[in-house]
Design a protein that fits this description.
This protein is globular. The chain has an 8-stranded mixed beta sheet with strand order 4-5-3-12-13-14-11-15, with helices on both faces. Strands 6-2-1-10-17-16 form a 6-stranded mixed beta sheet, covered by helices on one side. The two termini are 30 Å apart. Helix 3 crosses helix 6 and helix 3 packs across helix 9. By secondary structure, the protein is α/β, with parallel strands linked by helices.
Length: 362
């Protein structure tokens, strides 16, 4: 059996990994280079930003993936020599306006979180600018992964396993026969297969067959900054309001992120630079002593309630979807790919598939 996956981000790569492991032949096409859209641009936080504010379908995928990530990162490191840098560094939420809801959610889901006062926050992480009257929450269990390195490791492993990558192959159209897709049209010709998977992120709706059902997915721009500091300067991940600081093992600190309706315009803006740098320097003033290394933007695939589409097209029997993960693409990706593989291969599903099935969605 042969499959063509449209989209070479983390979701598409993990879907290919599920199928190649089951003996399929897989090709992955992308209009750009492997993993250079949202998968490269994100922060790699292995949790929804505020998990207690998320609908249950997001939490279900996130929980399954959180349990899978340590083994996935270890396996990729052993098979490729590329370390995706999975690390459990914890998340510190500062000045929570819905602190009581957060505590209730943690108790309900048996999450070991702690209420910290200012002095306790500063013992955990020195040099933060912390309100004496704010309500702060610490969760040691939350991990991160270095998403560009995760992409590199997945690509290397899949290439070794025989997956064919067709980069800079824009999708020009679909060839249909009744309720089946027979091939994809690209500039180099037609690509035929037994099955097709749409995992093109923010472009998934535009890339879907015309005159048929399409998922409700649209682009939401996110901008980030990167400071080059020294290892150990910042230990935990820190979030206040809409923005966060993410420390990497080599000392770099990510600052994110904006949420902008900007169509497909990925150009960084001076206004976002101002907002993010002000947040970073107000929250962690030591960053003023270190150089700003990079400012970039990416396109998140927004969907209703942030719940992804996973499963078969409602009308075309050999077209499947794994897209629309919005801000939680990295944390949900392993579970989403496993669920898609379960549905394609007839296995018992890892989570209840009903909330994600295209036939049940807008």
């Amino acid at each position: 059996m042969e499959c063509v996956v449209v989209g070479a981000g983390i979701s598409g790569l993990l879907c290919a990994r599920e199928l190649i492991g089951a003996g399929w032949r897989v090709k992955i096409i992308d209009k750009s280079r492997v993993g250079r859209e949202a998968s490269w641009a994100g922060a790699g936080i292995l949790s929804p930003l505020y998990p207690w504010r998320q609908p249950n379908p997001i939490r279900e995928l996130a929980l399954w993936s959180q349990q899978e990530y340590p083994a996935l990162a270890s396996s990729l490191r052993e098979s490729t020599g590329i370390d995706p840098e999975w690390q459990r560094c914890g998340m510190l939420w500062l000045d929570l306006p819905d602190f009581d809801n957060a505590i209730d959610w943690c108790r309900q889901h048996q999450v070991a979180c702690q209420h910290l006062d200012k002095a306790e926050v500063l013992r955990l992480q020195a040099n933060l600018n912390v309100s004496a009257h704010g309500r702060h929450l610490w969760d040691l269990g939350i991990a991160q992964i270095r998403n560009p390195r995760l992409v590199q490791a997945l690509r290397q492993e899949l290439g070794r396993l025989g997956v064919e990558f067709l980069e800079r192959h824009p999708l020009l159209g679909w060839q249909l026969n009744g309720n089946r897709v027979t091939s994809l049209r690209v500039p180099q010709g037609n690509l035929s297969a037994d099955l097709f998977v749409m995992a093109a992120g923010a472009w998934s709706a535009l890339s879907s067959p015309a005159d048929h059902w399409r998922p409700e997915i649209w682009p939401v721009k996110g901008q980030m900054l990167l400071y080059r500091t020294k290892p150990g300067l910042l230990g935990p991940m820190v979030q206040r309001g809409d923005h966060y600081l993410i420390p990497r093992l080599d000392g770099r600190i990510l600052v994110g992120s904006t949420v902008e309706e900007a169509d497909f315009d990925k150009r960084p803006t001076a206004e976002a630079h101002r907002i993010l740098s002000r947040f970073a320097l107000e929250t962690f003033p030591l960053l003023a002593e270190f150089p700003l290394e990079l400012h970039w933007a990416g396109m998140r695939p927004a969907s209703p309630d942030g719940i992804p589409y996973i499963g078969p097209h409602p009308q075309l029997e050999n077209l499947y979807y794994d897209c629309g993960h919005f801000r939680n693409g990295v944390v949900m990706a392993p579970a989403a790919a496993r669920l898609l593989g379960d549905l394609i291969l007839g296995r018992a599903p890892c989570v209840d598939p009903r909330p994600y099935l295209p036939a049940n969605r807008p």
